[in-house]
Specification:
Strand content: under 5%
Helix content: over 70%
Structural class: mainly alpha
Order of helices and strands: HHHHHHHHHH
Low-confidence stretches: none
Largest sheet: none
Number of helices: 10
Radius of gyration: 18 Å
Length: 193
């Protein structure tokens, strides 16, 4: 899509114009994930620019449209995006229920990346200083990942949890750090070269 082109070139107005231009075409196909994916990019680009009024307005329309089209990916992603918005604005206690809604919906409809939702929940819990719950959520996410590259982010999060915890356990920190170093040594482009 040209939508991505405009996004990569930091032309948010062009991105919105192109999305508005191609949306009617995409909506006539069975591939609605592309419609919601392009819209997601636009929302995230605005989020990264701190344009909160646009983000909330677009998220409201996004969620309404996802329910209207009965698109499970769109509905699940609307909860996740609202959680991302609250994380971006450091409202972790508001982000957590959104990520939990996204997880519950994803599990019930068998859509989305469940392991990344557990990472989001774990990160919220970490910022809320709920260390044990953060650790459990992180391990739950790790248990669902079989791809070695995809476990790097949860192990990085786990290390952050252990290092930030009020009661630091040097054995857990060192063990997690060593595991992370092993993973990175097998994938030099990801940080160990």
């Amino acid at each position: 899509f040209k939508v991505k082109y405009y996004s990569f070139n930091d032309d948010i107005e062009g991105e919105k114009r192109e999305f508005d231009r191609v949306a009617p075409l995409i909506l006539r196909t069975p591939y609605l994930q592309y419609y919601f994916g392009a819209w997601t990019n636009y929302i995230i680009d605005n989020m990264n620019r701190g344009k909160h009024d646009i983000v909330l307005s677009e998220l409201s329309k996004y969620q309404e449209r996802a329910f209207e089209l009965k698109n499970d990916y769109g509905v699940m992603n609307s909860y996740m995006l609202l959680g991302d918005y609250y994380m971006n604005t450091s409202h972790f206690s508001l982000a957590l229920p959104q990520f939990k809604k996204a997880l519950e919906y994803a599990q019930s409809k068998h859509v989305g990346d469940i392991s990344s939702l557990y990472s989001n929940i774990s990160q919220c819990l970490m910022w809320l200083r709920r260390w044990d719950e953060a650790e459990k959520a992180c391990f739950k996410g790790l248990s669902l990942v079989s791809d070695e590259i995809k476990v790097i982010q949860p192990y990085t999060l786990l290390l952050s949890i252990y290092c930030r915890s009020e009661h630091q356990d040097s054995v857990k920190i060192n063990k997690t750090y060593d595991k992370l170093q092993q993973l990175l040594s097998r994938h030099p482009l990801l940080g160990k070269n």
